[in-house]
Structures are given as structure tokens and as C-alpha cells.
Design goal:
The complex is a heterodimer of chains A (about 425) and B (about 1200). Chain A is α/β, with parallel strands linked by helices and about 425 residues long. Chain A has 14 helices and 15 strands. Chain A has two domains: about 240 residues, Metallo-dependent phosphatases (Purple Acid Phosphatase, chain A, domain 2, 4-Layer Sandwich); about 170 residues, no CATH class. In chain B, strands 1, 2, 3, 5, 6 and 7 form a six-stranded antiparallel β-sheet that branches. A five-stranded parallel β-sheet of chain B has the order 8-12-13-4-14, sandwiched between helices. In chain B, strands 9-10-11 form a three-stranded antiparallel β-sheet, with helices on one face. In chain B, helix 13 packs antiparallel against helix 21 and helix 14 runs antiparallel to helix 21. The chains are: A alpha/beta (about 425), B mainly alpha (about 1200).
Chain lengths: ~425, ~1200
């Protein structure tokens, strides 16, 4: 019987994204999450007495240069070495260029596959042969799989590869290949990496993306971990997804249609959060609250975003072990703004203007020079990141229009009725 | 849509109230009237609740609880549809039909036309507050047309506040050059974290470098330590050799000497001592024996020669006794004749004494006179008594004589003296005059004081000055109050302060101005500075030129004259060209030298400002001077009544103070003058009284014995003193006369008494003398003495008798003594003779004292010889014992010597010394050898000695210390410091590597950076949203104005005319200073009035006009909705209320208007509106 763990996309020591610190937020609970998840992996391997571990790329995050991370990894490998567990690693797009990968001396139990050509390592005591090739640089666009050798019939054949296959949404296209490229090799198990969502691509042969071991932002929700593979003597293979993450990311959508008062809103949100918490067994939770439904409270949300967000956060703090990542106010009015204001009121004209105005960066900066000033001051991470100050994507622009309309209406009506 | 009916079923104060009916043919003006507390506000809320449901909280549950609240009504839309329904306060199914069954909320859609609750309130509701606010808002915007229209059009009264809020929130988020806004802070924090991350991050290169450095250093240190060990071992080896080589040489030498000694007889360790001792003991014993034997023989010879008298020795005690008694014997023999002589002399003296007493009596019969001595005391006492008695007698006779004489003298003196009476009345007057004290001095002093004070006061008054006159008029002088003067002082001071202050400011400004002018000159001197004004002037000139050129060129005009006027010197073309060029140059320079232009402009501005300040300050000073003059005039006026010409208030305060002091003083002086007058009257009275009394006494005196020719009459003066003194002298004289008379009488009585006493004493003394004479005779009577004897003779006689008896007794005692001496001499002689008979019979015949002395000498010689003999015998015995001991010792030493010789294997004692000397040398060498061997063993420290010997043989002895030194220096100077240095490096490297512990600190910072980024992202988005929204809103307002200004303003103009009852004929737009469009009201005379100049009520009406106009304009395209007006007429005067009602009535022809009011007057006025209007009134 052979027992091994297949994991990938560990992104050791990469930070969690999209979190804002607020008062009483569970900072300690989320600190060093990827490390602690990796700890879980090591402990699991030792408990399960596996024969070896496969790491299918992206052990480190691309531009992370702190050698301490390498030292930590090396230390963990030392633990495995003591337990007699071997480790096989290919690099992926993220760690191909990493100094950590290149410079770190590793114990003898660790095999780092070369990047120049495919390497096949035989484990004669187990009757296993592992074929693998590392990335030579970040953006490998050639089909690496096609270069893998055909199976060796005397062994249990494992292919280890970091690939986007035919492409996945939210994942960059690297070392592309199709299913045939893999199945045609005649291997028993393809240990893939790159896609952060766990996926079993094929049952025969088994082609598996184990997903990453710890969610790092709101797009990585749900349970995260590795795949524990058991190969019986008759070569029947059993796979099991094991949970390793130390905190969970969840989207929590709450319908506020029934809520007419702010108290009702808070009550509903509290219930929803409690429900989320119940589903997890005492694991810290990072939640994005998405409020939907047409509610009379809608108008207040945009006017008083900050106050509402703080209100929801304090609920999270009261419940404990919940980090409220963000609150999305996706509620709507019972009537559309068009219906409300007809065609000829000044407000209708305002709404229409907002609908029609060009919202490309150039126009915006011309209209509001202060925004251009702001953009110049922002850290490069924002300017070059996924969420630039002025997002040119159509749905973002639409969102902006909508927010402007709602904000102005809220303000205008508030001053119309109160005074 | 129109509201046809409102049912107040259970709401506020209402319970099943009959419905409010709003049905009418036209939409109509519906007035709902309710006095206070009648439920006007409740019914207004009920109307809203009916249309849009109940508020979450409502104050209308004071009778009916929330779940009981119920309103109902009927609506009709323009399509003619009608709906009757009711509403409860419920979250769902609040809409019910008449039967109470739930209705779908959508049934109201065709009636409300999608107008939401808050939209309804904004567009179709107006109350007093929003009206006032709208009016104020128009003012705040100064009638800015866009905002006024937009606000009115949207039913929003506070548009500016919306924009302000957006901008304010945005400013709190970000400022391009700020530090505090949240985004700025976030960015700063992010940068700090970035720096921290860089510090905490560990690069692989560094780690490897340290790893390598550590390994290298450790290897190097191990090598050095090995080398040091080797060096140390070699040093030890060489050191051993150096020490061992001399010792090895010594060892060899000792061993050689030992073998050269040959055979040696071993001797016991104490042999030498014993041999020496035995030899000397033997010699000593021989000497002793010989010496003792010789002395014994000599002593025995000496003893045999001593002889002595043994009998005499046994009687030694007796001989001593005799010798002692010999002295006594010799003295007795010498005394006897002397004593006999003394006895005879004494008896002769006694006989002479007796003869003086009783010449008739023999010495042997003297004893019969002894009784007379017993009366000696009595005779002595009588003698002393006689002395006292005779003295008393003499004294008494003397006293008697003097008393008789005194009596005779006194009797002449006392004859013819009469009594003198006491002058009581005069004494009383004197006393009361005395009581007045030194009234003369007092008065004189006061008068002179007053004089002096008056002089001083006048002098003081002259010194103070400013006013002259006598003291009385000074007291009556009228002067201003010191508070008044203080007031002037203050105002003078204040003016002076202000002046000083302003002058200071003026100087500063002038200084500043000069500085600025210098600056300006600096710039101007550096080259002419172009100015905007110059440019515009040049451009104007250029434009004129162009016009001329154009006229000449295009219009073919003759412009020669104008050209001359344009430029008298240059031709038009050249002149124009030069202006064009000049204008360009100027413009270029303005741009190029913008800095200079700006600075000179700024300097000029400053200059102007400063000049203005200087001017202002000068004006201020002039004004102050005027004020100062006025102040001074009133100051002078304040003193007019006093004829004093005042100095400055400060000086006058001092002056007034001194004048007040002086006036106080003068008051005192006047008081004192008054007191003096009173005192003078008092003195006159006292003097008069005394005078009269003395006068009456004078008449008495002439009659009596007192007044005598020598007395003066009392002095006549103002003063009391002389009269008083006269009276006092008179009184004293009378008292003295009386006292003298008393004394004479007393002395006469005393003399009489003394005479009587003296007579008595004389008589007693004579009696005592007679008695004494009797006793004296009796004392001597029985003794047979002849005749009387005086007291002195009697004492002498008694003394002689006593002496006689004493001498007789002394002679008797001497006789007894002579007899005793004779008896002792006889006894001694007998005892001596007896002893001599046995001891020295040949001496019996010798005189007693000689034989005693000779015996004594013989005894002494015998005692000396006996002592010598005993001593010799004792010494002889001791010598015998010593001789025997010496013989024994000699024998034992001989034995010992024999034994020692056998040990040394010698025949004779002389041979022994050779044997012992050799043995001693052998022992010495043996000791040296073993010492050296022990030392060597220590040096080689357990190594094989043979090996050492071998190495020593090979070693270069002289080179050894050099080799050791070299090695040690190498260790000290090179190896050890190097090891230390490398150890330090190793320590540092280890510390560094330990710090590279694989910790996640950098990762944590990265997490914090992500968190900060998230904040910045969110805030930036919010900022963008706010800024964009604000901008778009402003643009929209402008756009709205452009589009709606004309039609809405036209309608609003009409409303404004109606509402102000023609006070304004309409509204127009105008432009303000900045060129922005503003609203103005048009007066009938076409005067344009900006909103600032309108009354607040008019502005309210302006806002109302705009609201109504918008509403009317909307009607053209939208379904009408009831216009709810809540008591907006409160602040309108009667006429304008009426006008407003009329306007609303006009509107109600097209659109339902529901007016809620508290005021009945409104209802009454509504009823009087002329015209064919539908006006319905509902009263609550």
C-alpha cells in the first residue's frame, strides 16, 4: 500500500487580501494563516504516516523575498525527514523565479524537479515513478505536458505538473495542455497545481487539482486543503480531500426585502452571520456581507455607508471569531429611480446626466482634478493592482453610476424632507 | 390624482369622526381648519399615513394603541378611476378594503403614479419651516438662479447644504497636500510599513553569506587552536630540558666523589656526641676528687685551734640584767644631796608667808589657820556688792541737782502766749487755684502755638500757591471733587496713551513703507517692470492703430488726421507696428518676468496698504488732538468758580490733597483759639476769689498778731501765679507759729517728772549701804583679826595664807623620795657579789660598777668563739660526702669510654677522629645525590629520565631560551589575538543567524500592508464617488437652470406679482459680480431688486412663487397630485395672505390644493375671495 499527499499552491507567507483592520477585529486569528495551514499539512502527513508528499507548484508567492519563509519551510522539511517522509516539488509560475526556491538548501528527503527537462524519479521500495518538470520562468506558455515520457509499466506512474490546463477563469494561462495530453501518457495519477479551487478533472486516470491549502481572499471561499491518496496493492486508488485551512472565507448574502427598520436589518444580518458560524466548527471566519433585496432602508445605506458598516462589524465582534471583510450594499429600491422621478423633475435630469456622462479616467480627472492628485499619491500596489482607482471595466463603471445616483438621491431627499 | 375623502376612524384624538370631504367639481381649494388641540397636525399625518402607510413611530397613539390605528379614504385619478380603502399600522397587509379584507399594495399604483412618500413630501408638500428655509437658502445663494430653480423644482430647500456635505466628507478623506485626512494618513502608514518590511526581510544572499562566514571562521579557529597546542607542547619540552641539564651534571659529579671515599665504617648517628661527652666527664671527675681531699685536711686543723669559758656562757642573762641596772644605780647616787637642799628652802619660804598673816604663830602650828580659807568666797561677794552700792548713791545725788535746775529755767518761758486760729477759707481758695494747674504757662504756650501755627499755615498756603487770601476765606473756598479731577486725569491719560499707541503704529508703518519703497526701487532700478495696466494701455493703443489701419486699408478712408493724433512722429504703419511689437514684448515680459511682476505688484499693494495706514493714523492723531483740546476746555471750566488756574489733573490731584491737608490744619488752629478764650476767663475768676480772701485776711491780720510790718501786699497782675504764691506763703507762716508754742509747753512737764524720780533713788541707796556694813564686820569677827580691814586688804590676806600651805606640802614630798633611792642600791650589790663567787672569784673585791663592766666583756668573747667552732664542723661533714660521690663518677666514665672505642674499632681514643671524619663526608655526598635525583624527577614530570638524558645530550644548551621565547611570542602576539578576533566574528555570525529564525514577522507586516491597502482602496473609492457626485450635481444645477429658467421663471414671475400684490411685477435674471446668473425682483418702475434687499417675508414669497411655478410647469406633463399646504401664511400680512389664498385658489383649478390651518382668519379671508372658485372648508 502506498500513501501520499498531493498539494499545491501553498503561497507560503503570502498575506490575506482585502481585509481592513477595525476595532476588536480578530487580528491574531488570521495572522500567519498560510503558515499555520502548512503546519497542518506537515502534522497530517506525519500522523497519516504517508510515504511522500507532492507539491505541484507555487510553494512560494512570486515576489516574496523574505528568506525567513525559506528557513521556515526548510525546518518543516527537516521534520518530515525525521519521520522518513520524502517530498517532491515542481515550481510553478509564482515560485519559478523565486530566490527562495533557488537558494534554499534542503534536506535529502526533498527532491526539486529540474526545469530544463522532465525528470523521472524512481522509488523502488514503493514501486513508484514520479515524472515532473519545474517552471524555468514565470510565464511558461509552452505545453510542458507534451514533453513528459510515456508511462513505465513496472511502476505506479505519477505525473506532477503546474498547469492551467485549457484555462480557468481567474487564473492565468500557463503551461497549457488539454486532457488528451495527460491521459495519453498512461500515468496512474496526475498531480496538478495552479487552480486554487479543488477539482477532480478525471477519474481514470485520476487527474486532480487539490486547490490551495488556505483561502487568501474573498474569491477563495469554502473549505481548503490537500488530497490524501491511498494506492492499494491491486492499484485501486482512493482519494480523500482533507481540510487544512485555519480560517474560512465565505460570502454571506442577506436578503433585506422584509426589513423596514434598521433594527430589523441588524437582526437579519446577525442571524445570517450566526448561521455561517454554525456551519463551521469553531474556525475563524472571514465574511463578505452582501445585502440584497429591495428595502426601504436602501436610501440610508449609501448616505451612511460608514455607520452601517460599523454597525455590522460590531455584530461580528459580538459573535466573535468573525472578520467582516466588506459589506456590499446591493439592495434596490422598490421603485426604480426613473419611476420615482418621472421625466421632467430636476432630479430626473440629474439621474439622466449620471447615466450619460462619460466615465473614462481622462474625463474623470478633467472633471475632478483632485482625483488625479489622489491617484498620483496612491501606493503603486493600488495603481497596478486588480482594483485601480478608476476601474475602466464596464460593470465597474455601471456600479459607479449607480452609486452616484443613489448617493445623490439619498442626500437630496434627506434634505428635502427633514428641513 | 385627487383626494376625495379622508376618514379619521381611529387616529390621534379622533374616533370614528365623520369623514373630511374633499369632493368637488374642480380639484378645488380645500381648507382644513382646526384650532389648537383640535387635531390639525394629526389629520395631516393621517393623510400621509393613508397614502403611504404609518411611520414606524407616530405620536398619534395616545388614545388608540398602534394596532388599533385606522384611517380610510377615497382617491380618484385623472382617468376617472376611484378607489376606497383603509389603512392599518401593520407591516404587512396594512392595506384593506372597506370590509377589512387585505388589498394588494399595487392597487394604489395607478393613483400614486410612482411618487414615493418622500418624493410626495418634497414635491407636493410645503409647510412654514420649509418655506422659511427656502427663502433663507435663496438669500444664502444670493439668488443664484440655478440653485433656486433646482431647489424649488426638486422641492429641496437646502441644496447648498447637500453640496457642502459631499465636499466636507470628501475633505475629511483626502487633501492633495494634507496630512490629517484619512487617506493621507493611510498612505503614510503604508509607507512606514513598507520601510519596516524592508528592514525585517531577509534576503537569501545575506543568509548564505553569513552561513559561509560562520563556517570559514570556525575552521580557521580550529586550525589556530591546533597550532597553539603544538607550540605549547614544544615549549614545555624545551623548558624541561633547560631545567634538567645542570642537575644532570651535578648528579654525575657527586657520584664520582662518593666512590673516591673507599671503605667507610658506619657509625650510629649520636656517636660523635657520646664520644666527646664521655671524655670530658672523665676528666672533670678526676679534678674534683683531688680538690675536695685537700680542703678537708685544712679545715680540721683550724677547728682544733678554738677554746672558750662555758660557765659564763650559761649565766649570760644575769650579766645582761646587771649591766642594765648599773645606769639607774649611778643616777640615784648623784641625786640624793640635791634633793635634800630643795626641801630646806621650801620650809623657809613657808615660814616667811605665815609671818605676814600671823607673825605671832610658829610654822608647825600653821595648821590651825586652815578654816579661814573656807570663808574666802563670802568675802569676795561682799567686796563686789560694796562697789555697786556706793555707785548708786553718787548717781542719785547728781540727778536730783540737775532736775532742780531745769525746773527753775522753764518756768520763765511759757508766760503770756495766746492761741492762733486756722485760716480755712483761704486754704480752700488756694486749693481750687492749685487745681487749675499751671494755667498761666498753659495759656501762654497755647497762645504762642496758635500764633506759630497761623504763621506756618500762611506760609504753607503761599508755598502751595495757585490761590491767595486769608485763612478764613481759605476755609470757605469752593473746589472741584477729587473724583472729578481723577476723571480728567484718566481722560487725559487715555488720550495720551492712544496718541502714543497711534504714533508708534504710525512710525512702524512709515518704517515699513520706507522698506517697501526701497524694495520697489530695488526692483524698478533693476529694470522697468512691465505691468498689466501698461499692457492693456498698449493693447488699447494697438487696437486704435488697427482700427485706423483697417479704415485706411479696407474702407479706403483717409485717416491722415487721426493718424497724426494717433502718433505725431511715426507714420501710422510704423506706429501701429511698434505698438504691436510693444504689446507682444510686454506680454512676453509679463509672462517671462512673472515673478518680478508679481513681486512688484505685491509690493505696490503693500505700499498702498501702508500709505493708507499712515493716512489713517495721521487722521486718528488729528482727531485725538481735537479731543484733547475739548477735554482741556472742560478742565479749565471745572476750576472757574474757585478762581484757581489749574495745572494738569495729575498735579491738581496733588494740589488738592495739600489744600485739603492745610484746610484741616487751619480748622484745628481756629478751634484752639476758642479754647484759649475760655481758659482766660477761668483764670480771672480764680484770681478774683483769692484776692478777696487775702484782703479780708489782711484786715484780720492788722488786728491779730500775725500780720507784721515786713509783709508786702499781694502783686497786681493778669496772672494768677503771683497771687497764689502770696496766699500760699501767708498760710505757711501761720502754721509755723502754731507749732513752736506747742513744743515749749511739753518740755516744762518733762522736767517736773525727773526731779521726783531722783529723790526716790537717793533714799534707796543709803539704806543699802547700812545693811552691807553689818554683814562685813560679821565675816571677820571670829578670826581674831585686829580692827576693821578694807575690802582690798582682806583679799591679799587670803592669798598669802594659801601660798604658805602649798610650800609646806612640797617639802614633805621631797623627803619621801630620798629614802627610796638608797634602798635600790643595796639590793644590786648583794646580787653581783653572789655571781662573782661562782664565775670569777678573783673579781669579788672590785667596786660594783667595775666588776659589772668586766663581766660583760668576758661574756662577749666566749659567745664569739663558740659560733666559729660550730660553723667549721658543719663544713667538714659536707666535704666528706662530696669526696665519695666523685670517686663513683670516675669509675662509670671509664666503662663508657671502653664501649665507644670498640664500636669505632679503635684501640685508643686518639684514633677515633679519623673514622668519624670519613663517615661524615660519605653522608654528605649521599644526601646531595638523592636531592638532585628528586629534583630531576620533578623536572621531567614523570618522563623517562633516560630519554631526557638522551635529549639533553643532543640539545644545544645555549639556544634553548631563544627557542622557547620565539614560540611563546608566536602564541601571544599572533595566535591568541587571532583566535579572539575570529571568536568574536563567530559570535556575531551566530547571533545574526539566530535572528534569521524563519519567523513570520515580515509576513505579518505584509499582512498589515494589505490591510492598509484595503482601507486606502475603500476610502479612495468613496472619495471618488463623493467628488464626482458633487461635481455632477453642480453641473446638473447649471444645466437645469439653462433649460428651465425661462418657462419656469415666466410662470413664477406671475405668481410673484400676485403674491406681492403687484409690489413686484415679476422676476428677472441678472448677473452678479462674477458673471453668475442671479434672480432679481422687478419693481413696477422697472427697478431691479436683488434678494438681499428684499424683506424676509418677500423672499418666502419668492420661494413660494418658484415652488408653485415648478408645480404648475410639471402639471403639463405629469399626473397631478394634491398639493398639501401646512399653515404657510403665519408670517404674511393680511393683504398678502389674501393674495396668497387667491393664488392657491387659482392653482386649485388645475390641481387639488389642501390647506391646513390653525387660523380662523384664513378661513374667513378665503370665504371673501372674489371669483368663481371652488373653495371648501372642513372644520375639525
Amino acid at each position: 500500500m502506498i500513501k501520499f499527499i498531493h498539494t499545491a499552491d501553498i503561497h507560503l507567507d503570502s498575506p490575506l487580501k482585502g481585509l481592513e483592520v477595525y476595532e476588536d477585529a480578530p487580528i491574531e486569528e488570521i495572522r500567519g494563516a498560510t503558515r499555520r495551514a502548512f503546519d497542518n499539512l506537515i502534522n497530517l502527513s506525519i500522523e497519516e504516516e504517508v510515504d511522500f508528499i507532492l507539491i505541484a507548484g507555487d510553494l512560494y508567492d512570486g515576489d516574496w523575498k523574505d528568506y525567513n519563509t525559506g528557513l521556515f519551510f526548510s525546518g518543516q522539511m527537516g521534520k518530515l525527514s525525521k519521520a522518513g517522509i520524502r517530498v517532491f516539488i515542481v515550481s510553478g509560475n509564482h515560485d519559478a523565479a523565486s530566490q527562495l526556491t533557488r537558494a534554499m538548501p534542503l534536506p535529502d528527503n526533498v527532491t526539486f524537479f529540474a526545469h530544463k527537462k522532465v525528470q523521472s524519479v524512481k522509488l523502488d521500495d514503493l514501486g513508484v515513478i514520479i515524472h515532473g518538470q519545474s517552471y524555468s520562468h514565470r510565464a511558461v506558455t509552452e505545453n510542458l505536458a507534451s514533453g513528459y515520457p510515456l508511462y513505465d509499466s513496472d511502476y505506479f506512474n505519477i505525473g506532477i505538473l503546474h498547469t492551467s490546463l485549457m484555462g480557468y477563469e481567474g487564473h492565468e494561462d500557463y503551461a497549457p495542455c488539454n486532457l488528451d495530453d495527460l491521459t495519453s501518457k498512461g500515468y496512474d495519477y496526475w498531480a496538478l497545481g495552479h487552480v486554487h479551487q479543488r477539482r477532480v478533472i478525471s477519474q481514470d486516470p485520476l487527474i486532480v487539482f487539490p486547490g490551495n491549502i488556505q483561502g487568501r481572499h474573498i474569491r477563495e471561499t469554502g473549505s481548503k486543503g490537500a488530497t490524501l491518496v491511498t494506492v492499494e496493492d491491486d492499484r485501486t486508488i482512493k482519494t480523500e480531500a482533507v481540510e487544512l485551512d485555519v480560517l474560512r472565507w465565505e460570502l454571506c448574502q442577506v436578503d433585506l426585502s422584509e426589513c423596514e427598520t434598521s433594527q430589523a436589518v441588524y437582526d437579519v444580518v446577525r442571524q445570517a452571520l450566526e448561521q455561517e458560524q454554525d456551519q463551521l466548527d469553531r474556525k475563524p471566519l472571514v465574511v463578505r456581507l452582501v445585502l440584497t433585496g429591495s428595502s426601504p432602508v436602501h436610501g440610508e445605506f449609501l448616505d451612511q455607508t460608514t455607520q452601517w458598516t460599523e454597525g455590522f462589524r460590531s455584530i461580528a465582534v459580538q459573535l466573535g471569531d468573525i472578520w467582516l471583510e466588506k459589506v456590499k450594499f446591493h439592495t434596490t429600491r422598490k421603485k426604480s429611480l426613473g419611476e420615482m422621478f418621472g421625466q421632467d423633475s430636476p432630479i430626473a435630469g440629474l439621474l439622466k446626466s449620471i447615466e450619460q456622462i462619460e466615465l473614462d479616467a481622462e474625463t474623470i480627472f478633467r472633471l475632478v482634478p483632485d482625483l488625479s492628485n489622489l491617484e498620483k499619491k496612491l501606493p503603486a500596489e493600488i495603481q497596478t493592482g486588480d482594483e485601480p482607482l478608476i476601474d475602466p471595466s464596464p460593470d465597474k463603471i455601471e456600479e459607479l453610476r449607480n452609486e452616484m445616483q443613489e448617493l445623490l438621491i439619498a442626500k437630496l431627499l434627506q434634505h428635502g424632507e427633514d428641513k | 390624482m385627487r383626494l376625495k375623502r379622508l376618514d379619521l376612524k381611529a387616529f390621534g384624538p379622533f374616533t370614528d369622526r365623520p369623514p373630511l370631504d374633499f369632493t368637488s367639481k374642480e380639484p378645488g381649494l380645500h381648507i382644513v381648519f382646526g384650532a389648537n388641540e383640535a387635531g390639525k397636525s394629526s389629520s395631516l399625518r393621517a393623510l400621509k399615513a393613508l397614502l403611504y402607510g404609518f411611520d414606524q413611530q407616530t405620536p398619534d397613539n395616545f388614545i388608540h394603541s398602534y394596532d388599533q390605528l385606522l384611517v380610510g379614504g377615497c382617491l380618484e385619478n385623472s382617468a376617472g378611476q376611484e378607489i376606497v380603502f383603509q389603512r392599518r399600522k401593520k407591516r404587512i397587509n396594512d392595506l384593506i378594503d372597506e370590509a377589512g379584507d387585505p388589498l394588494d399594495p399595487d392597487v394604489l399604483v395607478p393613483f400614486l403614479n410612482g411618487v414615493e412618500s418622500n418624493i410626495f413630501e418634497s414635491f407636493y408638500g410645503i409647510n412654514h419651516d420649509s418655506l422659511v428655509q427656502g427663502g433663507e437658502e435663496i438669500l444664502a445663494q444670493k439668488g443664484e438662479v440655478g440653485q433656486a430653480l433646482f431647489a424649488a423644482g426638486a422641492g429641496i430647500s437646502s441644496l447648498k447644504e447637500v453640496i457642502d456635505q459631499l465636499e466636507k466628507e470628501a475633505l475629511e478623506l483626502f487633501k492633495p497636500s494634507g496630512q490629517l485626512p484619512e487617506i493621507n494618513r493611510g498612505i503614510k502608514r503604508f509607507k512606514e510599513l513598507q520601510k519596516q518590511l524592508k528592514e525585517l526581510s531577509l534576503s537569501s544572499k545575506i543568509w548564505k553569506e553569513h552561513q559561509k562566514a560562520l563556517k570559514g571562521a570556525e575552521d580557521e579557529r580550529a586550525d589556530l587552536e591546533k597550532e597553539r597546542d603544538q607550540h605549547n607542547r614544544e615549549v614545555q619540552r624545551l623548558d624541561r630540558l633547560t631545567k634538567a641539564i645542570p642537575e644532570l651534571a651535578s648528579l654525575a659529579s657527586w657520584k664520582e666523589q662518593r666512590s673516591a671515599l673507599g671503605e667507610v665504617i658506619p657509625l650510629p648517628p649520636d656517636f660523635n656526641v657520646r664520644f666527646q661527652q664521655t671524655g670530658s666527664e672523665k676528666r672533670e671527675a678526676g679534678h674534683q676528687l683531688q680538690k675536695d681531699t685537700e680542703r678537708l685536711e685544712s679545715l680540721e686543723e683550724k677547728r682544733r685551734s678554738i677554746l672558750f669559758n662555758r660557765d659564763l656562757l650559761s649565766q649570760a642573762d644575769k650579766v645582761d640584767d646587771f649591766h642594765q641596772r648599773l645606769g639607774e644605780y649611778r643616777k640615784g647616787q648623784k641625786d640624793i644631796p640635791e634633793r635634800n637642799g630643795m626641801r630646806i628652802t621650801l620650809r623657809r619660804e613657808a615660814g616667811n608667808l605665815l609671818k605676814q598673816v600671823r607673825p605671832d604663830l610658829d610654822l608647825d602650828l600653821a595648821e590651825q589657820l586652815r578654816p579661814l580659807l573656807l570663808k574666802k568666797k563670802t568675802i569676795q561677794a561682799l567686796s563686789s556688792r560694796y562697789e555697786a552700792i556706793s555707785q548708786q548713791l553718787t548717781l542719785a545725788q547728781k540727778k536730783l541737782t540737775s532736775a532742780e535746775l531745769a525746773i527753775k529755767n522753764r518756768e520763765n518761758v511759757t508766760v503770756g502766749r495766746s492761741e492762733i486760729k486756722a485760716p480755712i477759707k483761704l486754704a480752700q481758695k488756694v486749693k481750687s487755684a492749685q487745681k487749675a494747674g499751671d494755667i498761666d504757662g498753659h495759656l501762654e504756650k497755647n497762645q504762642s502755638d496758635v500764633e506759630t501755627n497761623k504763621k506756618e499755615a500762611l506760609a504753607e498756603l503761599r508755598r502751595i500757591g495757585l490761590w491767595s487770601g486769608d485763612l478764613d476765606s481759605l476755609m470757605e473756598l469752593t473746589l472741584p471733587l477729587s473724583a472729578t479731577i481723577q476723571g480728567f486725569e484718566n481722560s487725559y491719560g487715555e488720550i495720551a496713551d492712544q496718541k502714543r499707541e497711534i504714533q508708534k503704529e504710525l512710525r512702524t508703518a512709515e518704517k515699513e513703507l520706507k522698506k517697501i519703497q526701497v524694495e520697489i526701487n530695488k526692483i524698478v532700478y533693476a529694470g522697468e517692470v512691465p505691468s498689466e495696466r501698461e499692457l492693456s494701455r498698449t493693447r488699447e493703443k494697438r487696437e486704435q492703430g488697427w482700427q485706423l489701419v483697417r479704415r485706411e486699408w479696407l474702407d479706403q478712408e483717409n485717416v491722415t488726421e487721426d493718424s497724426k493724433a494717433y502718433d505725431p512722429e511715426l507714420s501710422l504703419v510704423d506706429a501701429y507696428e511698434s505698438y504691436v511689437e510693444h504689446a507682444d514684448t510686454l506680454a512676453d515680459r509679463l509672462r517671462r518676468e512673472a515673478d518680478r511682476v508679481v513681486s512688484i505688484a505685491s509690493l505696490r499693494a503693500q505700499e498702498e496698504g501702508l500709505q493708507k495706514i499712515v493716512e489713517e493714523k495721521n487722521n486718528a492723531i488729528a482727531a485725538l488732538k481735537l479731543r484733547e483740546q475739548k477735554n482741556h476746555d472742560s478742565w479749565i471750566r471745572a476750576w472757574q468758580s474757585s478762581t484757581v488756574t489749574p495745572l494738569s489733573p495729575r498735579e491738581m490731584i496733588g494740589w488738592l490733597g495739600e489744600i485739603d491737608k492745610l484746610r484741616f490744619k487751619v480748622g484745628d488752629i481756629l478751634k484752639k483759639e476758642q479754647a484759649i478764650k475760655i481758659d482766660e476767663q477761668h483764670r480771672r475768676n480764680l484770681k478774683q476769689a483769692l484776692w478777696e480772701e487775702i484782703r479780708s485776711m489782711g484786715s484780720m491780720n492788722s488786728a491779730g498778731s500775725v500780720g507784721s510790718a515786713g509783709e508786702d501786699a499781694p502783686p497786681d497782675s493778669e496772672e494768677l501765679g503771683p497771687v497764689l504764691v502770696f496766699a500760699e506763703a501767708l498760710l505757711e507762716k501761720m502754721a509755723h507759729e502754731r507749732a513752736r508754742l506747742e513744743k515749749v509747753k511739753e518740755k516744762q512737764a518733762q522736767a517736773q517728772k525727773a526731779w521726783a524720780q531722783s529723790e526716790e533713788d537717793l533714799k534707796t541707796a543709803r539704806e543699802d549701804l547700812t545693811d552691807w556694813q553689818k554683814q562685813w564686820r560679821k565675816a571677820f569677827l571670829d578670826l581674831g583679826l585686829k580692827g576693821d580691814i578694807s575690802t582690798l586688804e582682806a583679799i591679799d590676806l587670803m592669798d598669802n595664807l594659801q601660798n604658805c600651805f602649798d610650800k609646806l606640802k612640797e617639802a614633805d614630798d621631797l623627803k619621801k623620795r630620798i629614802k627610796g633611792i638608797q634602798r635600790d642600791a643595796d639590793e644590786l650589790e648583794a646580787a653581783v657579789v653572789e655571781l662573782l663567787k661562782t664565775v670569777a672569784p678573783d673579781m669579788v673585791d672590785l667596786p660594783l660598777d667595775q666588776s659589772i663592766l668586766k663581766l660583760r666583756a668576758m661574756l662577749n668573747q666566749a659567745q664569739k668563739n663558740s659560733t666559729l667552732y660550730d660553723k667549721l664542723s658543719e663544713e667538714i661533714d659536707s666535704l666528706h660526702r662530696e669526696v665519695s660521690t666523685a670517686e663513683k663518677t670516675l669509675e662509670s666514665t671509664n666503662e663508657q669510654m671502653k664501649e665507644l672505642l670498640s664500636i669505632a674499632k679503635c684501640a685508643k681514643p686518639e684514633d677515633v677522629s679519623t673514622v668519624t671524619a670519613r663517615f661524615a663526608e660519605y653522608q654528605r655526598l649521599q644526601e646531595k645525590i638523592s636531592d638532585t635525583e628528586a629534583l630531576l624527577a620533578r623536572i621531567v614530570a614523570g618522563a623517562d629520565i633516560e630519554e631526557i638524558i638522551r635529549q639533553a645530550a643532543e640539545a644545544d644548551v645555549d639556544g634553548l631560551p631563544g627557542q622557547i621565547g620565539t614560540l611563546q611570542r608566536d602564541i601571544e602576539k599572533r595566535i591568541n589575538p587571532e583566535i579572539n578576533r575570529i571568536s568574536q566574528i563567530i559570535g556575531e555570525e551566530k547571533t545574526r543567524l539566530a535572528a534569521m529564525d524563519g519567523s513570520g514577522k515580515a509576513a505579518w507586516i505584509a499582512e498589515e500592508m494589505e490591510q492598509e491597502l484595503t482601507v486606502i482602496r475603500r476610502l479612495s473609492k468613496r472619495y471618488s464617488l463623493l467628488k464626482l457626485s458633487s461635481k455632477i450635481l453642480q453641473q446638473e444645477i447649471e444645466k437645469y437652470r439653462e433649460e428651465h429658467q425661462d418657462p419656469v421663471l415666466r410662470i413664477a414671475s406671475g405668481y410673484f406679482n400676485d403674491l406681492t400684490m403687484g409690489s413686484f411685477t415679476g422676476l428677472r435674471t441678472d448677473v452678479d459680480d462674477k458673471g453668475g446668473p442671479i434672480l432679481v425682483g422687478l419693481r413696477p418702475d422697472n427697478l431691479r431688486l436683488t434678494v438681499e434687499k428684499m424683506s424676509s417675508g418677500t423672499r418666502d414669497q419668492l420661494f413660494l412663487a418658484l415652488r408653485l411655478a415648478t408645480l404648475e410647469w410639471r402639471l403639463e406633463k405629469n399626473e397631478p397630485m394634491p398639493f398639501i399646504v401646512d399653515d404657510i401664511l403665519i408670517n404674511f400680512d393680511d393683504n398678502r395672505s389674501k393674495a396668497t389664498l387667491k393664488v392657491l385658489a387659482d392653482l386649485s383649478r388645475k390641481n387639488q390644493v389642501i390647506l391646513f390651518t390653525h387660523h380662523r382668519q384664513i378661513v374667513e379671508e378665503a370665504k371673501t375671495i372674489q371669483g368663481n372658485y371652488t373653495i371648501k372648508i372642513n372644520e375639525l
